[in-house]
């Protein structure tokens, strides 16, 4: 069926299904690649933009750069098509809804979901900034929440220079109103303004004279939770020089505030909450009257991830994932301020005797009885649901269920994705040394060197209970703060631990780390609730692994027939 988008013109080679939305920059259509069968989103640029030769020359250069960026927090751009009839961007069709819709339907999303949204938005911006592409007009309609609760940024550089303030007035930095060009600093400001709206349900400034409000009105920090106010002060500073110098710096500040206020599992909890809110927003009709200041442009919303056949360049994605690793590694402490005094474990009868005693790790906590309690607790509830993320070198995301196997690695059923050829989510099962993957809705054996089998094995070692106990057993530093144990262990010693040693050997090779820093939170029954570990220095190659655990009990994971 013909699909009349702009003066009857459509990008050749695609069958158009329906319109997804539109705005000042143009209309977006859902289409299918006639060659590959891949669903894509095509943004047809408004005629006024196509006729602006200066804009087209600049945007064409930006579009070519965007096709080289592959990052989980950036909407993939596959092609920029131009001709006498018009111009269009062929893009990834993402599974999710716009943040604008979430806010319009749900209102404020809460601190954890707001922090997760800000973190994902900053990651997407960082990936573009690495390639010298500034967004210029971040607003809720430009942020998509996908099916896993990740914030994905699109619509980069669509506002002609000098019009950024008018295009996204509630989120436009003061200098944009004075005619200054969009910069990294103005992107930070806009992302922070969106963060404020996630927390409160409205932009920080709204009124008739938006320029004056952005330039002169005090930042309404009293409307947000206390631990998050400094993020607002810094991100919404009137002077660009007073804002974080880079997105990486702002991510570091975000991680520090989030871990201090909400603990090491804040990110997984935030993504989980955001997933719920997005799913509910997709089910419910959107209010006729949009939320104040959320903008009108519709971002791409969709049904399934793209599996295009085009060759992708992944260096920018890896570089940006390293940014979030740097943010996490910069905050090994789980509470703000100075370190509290070490809390020593109560003396055991053996320690009260005159016999020589083993030297406890720095911090005074004896790991031996702690390891026993963890092993006993998990033996009684041998399995759990988990959510795993590795950022930095070798980024991976996974979630699923595992069953504890005494003396061996657990059995796992999970959905896992990495970067490059494994960017699309894959369903896998591993039992013993046998890996299985779901291909065309059928389970098939996978060789151990298959990319998805390799990811599954990495997740299995990184999230297993044996990893938790190995960190405690080899710790040279260990202290307790509430229900969290924090410490450090030599990477060389960890590499020698049976079962999980290869994980630490790999981390050492990848990052050159001599020490692994970690934080472990236990539930009231001494079962792991959250694990955070870092290998490598913040300013060097490094990796951060985070796992959250839930629903402990007997799980059954069997190899498919």
From TrEMBL:
Q: Which GO terms describe its molecular function?
A: protein serine/threonine kinase activity
User: What Enzyme Commission number(s) does the record list for this chain?
Assistant: 2.7.11.1
> What keywords is this UniProt entry annotated with?
ATP-binding, Kinase, Nucleotide-binding, Serine/threonine-protein kinase, Transferase
Tell me the superkingdom of the source: Bacteria
Please state what class of enzyme this protein is.
Answer: transferase
**Entries under CDD domains matching the protein:** STKc_PknB_like
Q: Which residues form the signal peptide?
A: none
Under what name is this protein listed?
non-specific serine/threonine protein kinase
Which species?
A: Actinomadura sediminis
